[in-house]
Amino acid sequence: MEGAYDDRDGKIWLDGKLVDWRAAKVHILTHALHYASSVFEGERCYGGKIFLGHEHSKRLRFSASELDFEIPYTAEDIDAAKDAVLQANGFTDAYVRAVAWRGAGQEMGVASSRNPVHLAVAAWEWGNYYGDAKLKGAKLDIARWKRPSPETAPVHAKAAGLYMICTMSKHEAEARGCSDALFMDHRGYVAEATGANIFFVKDGEVHTPLADCFLNGLTRQTVIKLLTEKGIAVHERHIMPEELDGFEQCWLTGTAAEVTPVGQIRDYRFEVGALTLDIMDTYEKLVRS
């Protein structure tokens, strides 16, 4: 599938029915467009099966509740919608995007409790998120923005508004010849990339930032479980920026990113080492099993 995302053949599930791709539209006064009252999920389908699909559906509903609205569909309904989209488009390997939002309604101020809540599911074929970085390692910049405190935003929701600084940071990183940017959090600790969690290796052990002010990704959780099953020590902890100099390997995890090695963060360099390659291979086998 090619072309602009609003001009393609295919079907999108919208509020309970499959509609033509180009007909899946919202009104200009949709609340989410003005006030970011929107949550979403990104999922990958491998061989006709969405990896952790039900967990993604449950998280979508959780994220909505964190933004003070309720999706009028159960997790099982959302699962069925995703399956219907894949079947309608003839996809067996694809990226799946479920999104829920407050629409246009009786209110057009900050408050919107009387506005209807909508749900849509789309899917498309999508290759490696970071291109050839899986072979040579991604190059990361360091963002000038910081991940916010849990006291200032619903940081554990996968909410559209939380990605505003991600978009700006990724644009700045790409302008500097990088694939992505690494965030620090509001306290100055290493946090995550713009759309992926991060892991480091030192002396055969793995270190990853404690997910106390950013999304604890499902891929992150999966990779930690795989490492633990291999008998590899995993330290979830606060990591200071100056520690980057002592790490030997680094990788990113996310549904879109899968497991992608990192070769460089600013002036810090990392090898695409044996442990990185092993966890990439183990994850790939798991999602396709």
UniProtKB/TrEMBL annotation:
Transferase found in the keyword field: yes
GO molecular function terms attached to this record: L-isoleucine-2-oxoglutarate transaminase activity; L-leucine-2-oxoglutarate transaminase activity; L-valine-2-oxoglutarate transaminase activity
SUPFAM superfamilies named among the record's database cross-references: D-aminoacid aminotransferase-like PLP-dependent enzymes (SSF56752)
Keywords assigned: Amino-acid biosynthesis, Aminotransferase, Branched-chain amino acid biosynthesis, Pyridoxal phosphate, Transferase
PROSITE patterns listed in its UniProt record: AA_TRANSFER_CLASS_4
Pathways per UniProt: Amino-acid biosynthesis; L-valine biosynthesis; L-valine from pyruvate: step 4/4; Amino-acid biosynthesis; L-isoleucine biosynthesis; L-isoleucine from 2-oxobutanoate: step 4/4; Amino-acid biosynthesis; L-leucine biosynthesis; L-leucine from 3-methyl-2-oxobutanoate: step 4/4
Cofactor list: pyridoxal 5'-phosphate
Coiled-coil zones: none
Biological process, per Gene Ontology: isoleucine biosynthetic process; L-leucine biosynthetic process; L-valine biosynthetic process
Gene3D superfamilies, alphabetized: 3.30.470.10, D-amino Acid Aminotransferase, subunit A, domain 2
Enzyme Commission numbers on file: 2.6.1.42
EC top class, as a word: transferase
Highest taxon of source: Bacteria
Family stated for the protein in its record: Belongs to the class-IV pyridoxal-phosphate-dependent aminotransferase family.
PANTHER family: AMINO-ACID AMINOTRANSFERASE, AMINODEOXYCHORISMATE LYASE
Biological role: Acts on leucine, isoleucine and valine.
NCBIfam families (alphabetical): ilvE_I, PRK06606.1, PRK07544.1
Protein name: Branched-chain-amino-acid aminotransferase
Originating organism: Salipiger aestuarii
